[in-house]
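input
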Amino acid sequence: MINRVIFVIITFVMLSCQKPVDIALEKKKIQAQIDLVEQAHYNKDAIQFFEPNTDQWYDVRNGIIQLIDKSERIPTTQKYLDNMDFHEMIQHNDPVIQISDDATMASYLGSAMIKGVLDKSPILWVVSWQSVLKKANGEWKIISTANTEGNTKVTAKVLLDHIRKKMGILENNDLSSIYAYAKCRGPERSFETLILSNEKNGRMEQIYGEQHMLLKHGEETSWTFNLSQKSGEDKINDETAMFIKGHELHWLSFWPEHRYTDPIFKGISKFNDKTAFQIEFKDVFDRPIQFYYSFDSYLPLGFVLVTNTNGDKVNVTYDSWESMDNLKIFKKAVFKQENDIFEYDFIDVKVNELRNQDFESKTGLIK
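output
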């Protein structure tokens, strides 16, 4: 009995003398190991790529589990790195690191959007993964990794969120409204257009020849009013609503999701001879609308929409970008429909200055 008491006392003393685990420090050590993988892409170094891993580890993907031998994987990975021009790895969620109480086991959850050129072809991957790490000889090493790749819907969402950040939108309330006045030129005459937009409403005013029209769509009210004739309609059909939305160019450059549905990533293609990310939306008639974004800068290049059941298309191009209140704003747009070209020069663009009543006004705002 005395020996047992002595053993318990000694054990208690030994445990009480152990230094508490510095969780913050251990997380930094784990993150440093994970960072080696990103650095290896830039350095084109397969040995560095697998430096965080044990000599053998379990790989979980595509519904199977494989035991991977580092010495066998290095040559194929080196070939991949040699053929990969790695542009950037962008985290779209903060990593989640969990460590056991005794700091011998840990889990790392990461997610990233990876952009580069592989075998001379531009690529974009949205990935997430979980690595399990074990501490051996004072160093964290990966003993298993599970990988997933985002589908076309997830990729579209992640890409659109990143595009908005590149354009200056850090929080949803960074942009509450846009006022955009343009002097326009068409194949027959010059005209003027004013577009007001917020999340739930769009108002289009246009002076074309002797006609001065107002058109408005919204969550609560939609109407048209002919200022020249002092008459209008209290309701609009879906085609008219689509016509207004298709002219809300600035709002569409930031928030196409507010006007169209079901975005999916269609891959990397060309728009006006520029390499572009392509995202497809659907309008209320289930017609496709293709939006294009620069592969280099992420800025919107324009979009192509189908206007009727015959499949007629309108190509809209954004141009002349400027910075305004930390936001990226274009000052010119071109509509092309078959051989007809309409040029919009936006000479007055304002952000976050509109009131709700401005959208309901049936008084002309173009002076």
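quick obs: The first strand starts at residue 53 and ends at 61.
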